[in-house]
Amino acid sequence: MLKNKIYKYLSIEIFKNFTIILLTFTAITWTVKAVNFLELMINDGFSGEIYFKYTLLNIFTIITRFVPLAFLLSLIISITKFERQQELLILWTVGLNKIKIANIFFLISCALVLLQIILGLFVNPYTLNKSRTLLRESQDKQINSILRASDFSDTFKSVTFYIDKKNDNNELINIFIKDNNGSLNTMLNEINNTNDTTIFAEKGFIENNSLILFNGTIQTLNTKYEIKNIDFKRTVLSLDKFATRTITEPKIQETSSILLLQCLTNNNSNKILKNCSNDNSKKNVTEALSRRVGMPLYIPLISTIASFLLIYKKEKKNNFIKKYLIFGIGFAVLILAEILLRYTGFSFLTFAFYFLLPIFLFISLYLLLIKNMISEKIIR
Q1: CA dihedral in degrees (70, 20, 319, 327; nearest 10)?
Q2: Helices (H), 37-58
Q3: CA angle 132–136–137, rounded 5-degree value
Q4: Could you tell me the pTM of the whole model?
Q5: Environment class of 115 (CB within 10 Å of its CB; exposed 0-12, middle 13-18, buried 19+)
Q6: What DSSP string describes 155-198?
Q7: For residues 75 and 269, what is the distance between their CA atoms, to the nearest angstrom?
Q8: How far is Cα 342 from Cα 328, in angstroms, rounded to an integer?
Q9: Each residue of 89-122: pLDDT tens digit?
Q10: Mutual orientation of helices 98-118 and 2-36 as an angle, nearest 10°?
Q11: Which helix (H) or strand (E) holds 227?
Q12: What b-and-e string marks burial along 46-71, b requiring 16 or more CB atoms within 10 Å of the CB?
C-alpha cells in the first residue's frame, strides 16, 4: 500500500514538471509566432479578432512539437530532484523496485504517445485548417492599415496601390492604382475584357470596404492593346473581390489525415487534395503522416534512456556527469528522429526504418536497463 502511494507520488511529480515545462515552451514559442503573425494585420489588413483567433488556433501544433522534449526534461529534472533531496536513497533502502519505477515511466510515455497521436492525427489538422479558413472567408480587411502614405502596397494580388499622403480626416491624396489581372473589370462596363487598368485620382476615402475616388482618370488596355481613357468626378471601387497574397489554400499539415491516406492509396477521387498524383506531393504526404504517427513512437525510447539515471553510482562526480550525458543522448535521439523524418517519403524502406528504429532501440535499451538494475541489486 505504501509503495503504491510512493509510485503515485512519483508519477504526479513527473506530470507536474512535464506540464510546467510544456506550457513554458509553448508560451514562449506562441509569443514569437504571434509577433510574426502581426503581418496579417499590418500587411494584409485582417482585423485584430481574426489575428487573435488565427494565432490561438496554432497553439495545439506548438504543444505537439514540444511533448517529447518536455517529457525528457521532466524525467531528468524529477529524478535529479528526488536524488538531491535523498528521496531516492530512502526508497532504495526500503526496497523499492527500480524496474517498476522504469515501467511507470514507460506507462506515462504510452499515455503521452496516445495524446500526441490524437493531436497529430485529428486536432492539429482541424485547428490549422480552421485557421486557414478564417483567412479565406474573412471579409473584414482593415484597408486603411494597408494603404500607407508615400509607399507602394502590393498586398492584393496583381494590384498595386500608391498613396501620396493622408490628411487629418484620413482622406487619401493623389492615388495611383495599377491592376494587372482584371480585378477592376466589374467596376464599369467600359472596362470589360482588359489586360490591365490604371487609375489616377486626386483624392479618396475608404467606407464600408469600398474605395470612393474623386476627380481622376481610368486608363485601360484591352486585349487588342488599345488604350482608352475615362475621366470621372466620383466613382466607387469595391474591394470585396480583391484577393490578398496570404495563402488561403490548405497546406499538407492542414489537411485531414483521412485525405492524406486517400492520397497515398490513390483513392483521391474527390480531388480535394490537389496534385496528389505528383511524386513530390506524395513524399510530403508520407512525411506528414510519419510525423503524426511515427514521431510519438520515440517517446517510450526517451523514457528508457532517462531510466538509466536510476542506476546508482558510488562516485558522485560520475552521477553529476551522467545527468548531462543522459540528456545529451535523449536530445540526440529527438534530433535524429527529426532528421530521419525528412527521408520517410523517399522509399518504403526508409518509411519502415523510421517506424521500426524506435521499437528496436527501446527493446534493446530496456533489456540492458533491466540487466544493469538486476546486477546492481546482486552486488548490493
Answers
A1: 20
A2: 39-42, 48-56
A3: 120
A4: 0.79
A5: middle
A6: -BTTEEEEEEEE-TT--EEEEEEEESSSTTTTT-GGG-SEEEEE
A7: 47
A8: 22
A9: 666 666 667 888 899 999 999 999 999 999 999 9
A10: 30
A11: strand 227-238
A12: bbeebbebbbebbebbbbbbbbbbbb
Q: In the block, which residue shows the cell 506550457?
A: 23
Query: With contact defined as beta carbons under 8 Å apart, do 75 and 303 qualify?
Result: yes
d(C-alpha 25, C-alpha 168), whole Å:
44
CA distance 200 to 218: 7
Q: What is the DSSP string of 244-298?
A: BSS--S--GGGS-HHHHHHHHTT--TT--STTTTSHHHHHHHHHHHIIIIIGGGH
Query: Which residue bears the cell 524506435?
Result: 358
Beta strands 159-166; 172-179: pairing state? antiparallel
Rounded to the nearest 10 degrees, the angle between the axes of helix 298-307 and helix 98-118 is 160
Per-residue pLDDT of 231-255, as tens digits, reads: 888 888 777 666 665 555 677 888 8
Backbone φ/ψ region at 182: left (φ over 0), alpha (ψ -120 to 50), beta: left
* Amino acid at site 22: L
* Nearest CA-CA partner of 298 in 68, 59, 71, 104: 68
For 4, the 3-state DSSP assignment is helix
Let me know: does 132 contact 250? Beta carbons within 8 Å.
yes
Domain ranges across the chain? 2-138+298-379, 143-238
Could you give the CA distance from residue 287 to residue 291 in angstroms, rounded to a whole number? 6
CA-wise closest residue to 173 among 158, 186, 162: 162
Confidence of residue 310 (pLDDT cuts 50, 70, 90): confident
Residue 343's φ and ψ, nearest 5 degrees, are: -105, 0
